[in-house]
Amino acid sequence: MTIDPAAFERYRHSPNSRTTLPRLLLGTGIVVLFWAATTVAVLVGGTYAFIAWQATPSSGIQGFLASPLGILTALVSFAGIWIGLWVAMRWVHGEKLSALLGNSRRVSWPGFLKGLIAVLITSFISEILLYLLQPQITRGPISLSSWLVFAIPIAALTLVQTSSEELLFRGYLLRGLASRFTSPFVWALLPALLFTSLHWSASSSPAINACVLASIAAFALLLTLVVYATGNLGAALGAHLGNNLTGFLLISHQESYNSFALFNARPLEGPGWATSDAVLIAFIGIACSLLTIVLLLHPRSPLRVAAEFPDRASTA
To answer: How much is the average pLDDT of 58-78?
Structure first.
C-alpha cells in the first residue's frame, strides 16, 4: 500500500510568500487568543444563565460544565478557532480561509463521506472489543424522544468542533510547516503532538492517560495520512466527526460528556482501571486506527479516498 505524494506536494506548496515561520507563530497566537476569548465568554455567560435558571449557586461552573447546556456551550467555544483562523489567514498571510481546505479550496465531500463511514465502522468494532474487556454499559439518562430532538444540533456543533481542530492542526499548522520544512518529523509530528497533548486529563490515572494519548496519537496519524494522500481535508473532517459523534451521541466513555449519549460505558476517568486494562484499551484504539487507514487507503477498498487535483479529475 503506497501513497502518491503528488497531491500533497501541491498542497504544501500552495501557501504564498507571507507564510513564514514568524508569521505562522503569530497566526497561531491569534488563533489561541480568539479561542481562549470565545471560551471564556461562552463559559461565563453560560454559567451565569445556568445558575440563574437553576437557582443553585453552589453548583457553580463545575455543575454547569456537567450539564447538557454546558456541553453545548463547550462545543460552541470552538467557533473561536474558526474566527482566529479567518483573521490569521486574512491579515497575517493575505490568503482566503478556503486555502486550508485543499488543492481545490473546497471540501471533498466524497472523501468526507468515506472518512465518516470508515470511522463509524471501526468505532463499532472498537465498542465491541471494549465491551468484551469491560461489559459495563448502562442506558443513558436521556430519553429517546429528547435524543432525537438534540441529535441534529449536537451533530452540527460537533462538526464545528471537529472541523475547527482539523483546520488548525491538519490545515493551518501542517500546511504552513510543510511549506517551510521538508521533514515530516516537523510538519506532521509537531501538529500531531500538539493535538494529542490537548487530550490529557487531570482526572484520569497515569496508565489511562497513557493509553488515551497513545490512541489519540494513532488517530492523529490516520488524519495526517489521509490529508497526505488526498491533498484535501475532506476525509479527515469526516473521520474526526464520526469519531466524536460516536462518543457524544451513542456510547460515552467520559462521565463529563455523557448527557446526550444513548449509552454510558464505564468512564475512563473513574477509579479501578488496571494497567493491563490500559494496555488493552490502547491496543484497541491503535488497531482500529490502523484498520481505518486500510479502509481509506488500500487500493482494493471500496472506501479508498482519491487524490485531489483541481485542474483534472481526481485519481482513485
So the answer is: 73
DSSP string, 55-111: T-GGGHHHHHHTSHHHHHHHHHTTHHHHHHHHHIIIIIS---GGGGTBTTSS--HHH
**In what order do the strands lie in the sheet containing 137-139?**
137-139, 263-265, 251-252
Whether the model pTM is above 0.70: yes
List Cα–Cα distances, 49 to 36, 57, 116, in angstroms: 20, 11, 35
Give the position of cell 515561520: 21
- Which of these, 204, 200, 196, 173, lies nearest to 272 by C-alpha position? 204
Task: Say if CB 94 and CB 18 are below 8 A apart.
Answer: yes
| pLDDT score for 109 | 96
Distance CA(297)–CA(230), nearest Å, equals 10
Model confidence pLDDT, tens digit, residues 167-179? 999 999 999 999 9
Pair 24, 177: CB distance under 8 Å: yes
Is the separation of the CB atoms in 47 and 61 below 8 Å? yes
Closest by Cα among 162, 220, 232 to 190? 220
Going from the C-alpha of 193 to that of each of 82, 115, 215, 240, the distances in angstroms are: 21, 22, 12, 16
Contact indicator for 230, 303 with CB cutoff of 8 Å:
no
Handedness of CA 305, 315, 173, 207 (dihedral sign): positive
Helix and strand element counts for the chain (H, E): 13, 3
List the grid coordinates of 85. 483562523
Give pLDDT tens digits for 137-196: 999 889 999 999 999 999 999 999 999 999 999 999 999 999 999 999 999 999 999 999
The amino acid present at 54, given as its one-letter code, is Q
Helix axes 206-230, 234-245, angle to 10 degrees: 150
196 vs 109: CA distance, rounded Å? 26
Residue 50: per-residue pLDDT? 64
- 104/222 Cα distance (integer angstroms): 22
Give pLDDT, residue 57.
52
